[in-house]
Amino acid sequence: MRQLKQIAIIVLSIMYSYVWANNQIHKSAPIQNEVNINFQPTHGNPVKAYQGYLNVQENRSDPLSRLIKIRYVRFPATGTKQGPPIIYLSGGPGGSGIATAKGKRFPLFMAMREFGDVIALDQRGTGESDKAPKCISSEELNLTQAISVESITQRYRKAATECFAFWRKKGFDVTGYTTVQNALDIDALRKHLGAKRVVLWGISYGSHLALTAAQLFADKIDKMILASAEGLDQTVKLPFQTDRYFERVQKMIDQSPNLKSAYPDLTALMNKVHAQLDANPIKVSIPNQKGAPVDLLFQKHHMQWLAAMTIADPGQYLMLLMQLYKMIEVGNTQMLTQVLQRGMFSDPRIKFELMPLAMDVASGITKQRLSTVKEQAKTALLGNLLNFPMPQLVNIYPDLDLGDTFRTPQKSNVPLLLFSGTLDGRTYPDSQRQAVQHHSNVSQILVENAGHNLFMSSPKVEEIIAQFMKNQPIDVQKIEVEELSF
Q: Which residue, among 299, 284, 346, 374, has the nearest Cα to 148 in the 3D structure?
């Protein structure tokens, strides 16, 4: 009997060693096309990782399509219970997953390794993946004369048409740069990694991409962790939702007597400045370190555009924007000149990158939503400039448009964890709810006082992600982060 026990122990030890060794191989050995690297974050010590790539068709609808490289960095899992690979999907469109992993979210990338290999993906046409050259069109905007948004739109449409021709001449199949093709790259990466399923972790456009993947191959997705969700028909945001955002900012202002005294009605202030700029645009001379100063006639649409660029997250930029409105109201342009020194509006040339332009044009907008956007834009604070150059470029390249079938979500039961910031100035909590309304297994967490880029807004975000990854019930619906301090 004792001999049988000893044999059993030896056999179990051998089996355990075999499993342990295989686990180590799975965790630490490079796979096809991967090389060992020391991954250096912007802040912190380098970590061992693998850099790899896979070749995919530029356009799967064309059997003769050329192959393009999709690159990624893989951080091997560290936990004892490894789950499916976790693929990070950047926002934008146009963001780089590899660059994101080097930045402020690096600690979260490292923490996620407890649950499986973490993949920082550079989507097709971005970062270190094969990408088209930037197109600098022949179209220019006159900086010193008054120009309407309609005229700007016409020039942008001409420039986009010219750029699509430029990329085609360079050998790029522009119809391959859609969110559907981008999503199919994720499934190709899954196969490349030898995984049955993957976890999708994305933000903003990355959520748009993840939701598309859930429509195409839900059975290959284990779960999704999303933030600042953008639905399949939400590439263009509704202008009145931006007005509601400024109402939420006003409620925050009203909690501080000093702020309330300075900004008793932010919406009224903004409307007043817009009217002033409509009647009397401001001539400014923007210092240029590389040459002579650039003259600009600063108009209402410039102010709206500037506001649209600064409201994604609460913080210093929101306060600067409020101060800028206050200064312009009283005729002080010193702050405006300082802000414009950062390069906004100083280059008259119209330029595009293929991937972000094509992805947005392809995702497009339904006729019903476009009609709503146009109607709301007539009186909305920022008009139709939050999403510029969409919807202004809708149907600029008809062969790209994915159609209303794409923009109509189907039911899904993929487990989904969604974080929404109450002070997100780009994707709003209510619209995010609508973005996932066809998903039956959703936990939405409101992050009070957080903006668009909220993953690092509170340690509780990471704690809830860990619960979700461990398949534990999520019993919280709200996280409160520190109120915005001006």
A: 299
Query: Do the beta carbons of residue 169 and residue 193 sit within 8 Å?
Result: no
| C-alpha 173 chain-centroid distance | 24
Q: Which two tokens stand for residue 321?
A: 């924007």
User: Which of 403, 431, 455 is a domain's end point?
Assistant: 403
Nearest CA to 222 out of 193, 245, 259 is that of: 193
Per-residue pLDDT of the chain (486 residues; tens, 9 = 90+): 334 334 333 333 333 333 333 333 344 689 999 999 999 999 999 999 999 999 999 999 999 999 999 999 999 999 888 899 999 999 999 999 999 999 999 999 999 999 999 999 999 999 999 999 999 999 999 999 999 999 999 999 999 999 999 999 999 999 999 999 999 999 999 999 999 999 999 999 999 999 999 999 999 999 999 999 999 999 999 999 999 999 999 999 999 999 999 999 999 999 999 999 999 999 999 987 677 889 999 999 999 999 999 999 988 889 999 999 999 999 999 999 999 998 889 899 999 999 999 999 999 999 999 999 999 999 999 999 999 999 999 999 999 999 999 999 999 999 999 999 999 999 999 999 999 999 999 999 999 999 999 999 999 999 999 999 999 999 999 999 887 655
**Whether residue 167 sits in one domain with residue 103:** no
The whole-angstrom separation of Cα 382 and Cα 474 is 37
What radius of gyration, in Å, describes the C-alpha atoms of the chain?
25
Name the H helices within 170-264: 179-193, 205-217, 239-253, 257-262
Q: Are 389 and 421 members of one domain?
A: no
Handedness of CA 30, 35, 36, 38 (dihedral sign): negative
67 and 213 inside one domain: yes
Q: Count the neighbouring beta carbons within 10 Å of the beta carbon of residue 467.
A: 16
- Please count the other Cβ atoms lying within 10 Å of the Cβ belonging to residue 284: 17
CA angle 53, 462, 453 (to 5 degrees): 70
Same domain, 459 and 417: yes
Domain that holds residue 190: 31-131+178-232+409-480
By CB atoms closer than 10 A (0-12, 13-18, 19+), residue 356 is middle
pTM for the structure as a whole:
0.93
Residue 427 structure tokens: 């994707």
Report the candidate in 355, 304, 380, 293 with the shortest Cα–Cα distance to residue 152. 304
